[in-house]
# Entry
Amino acid sequence: MTSTKASFSIISILAIIAAILSFNVGPIGGLLLAAVAFIFGVLGVVLALSPKTRGGGLSILAVILSFIGVIAAIIKAIGWFF
# Structure
């Protein structure tokens, strides 16, 4: 019986990268990257339900960071306009 090692999904890795980058750009880019991080994070959680795929915790972290990224982008936008 051969067993294959579970690997991280590309989607979960892209989700965490987008979530981290959402803090390093302006307000519009931050909102866009936070939205991408949220969508990819949710997809990563769904994909992680498979025993062949890892990255569920990473995807959940990306979703949490995307919410924080939205708040940070709103604060940046308020500071940008005033």
Remarks:
- Residues 2 and 56 are 24 Å apart (CA to CA).
- The chain has one domain: 8-72.
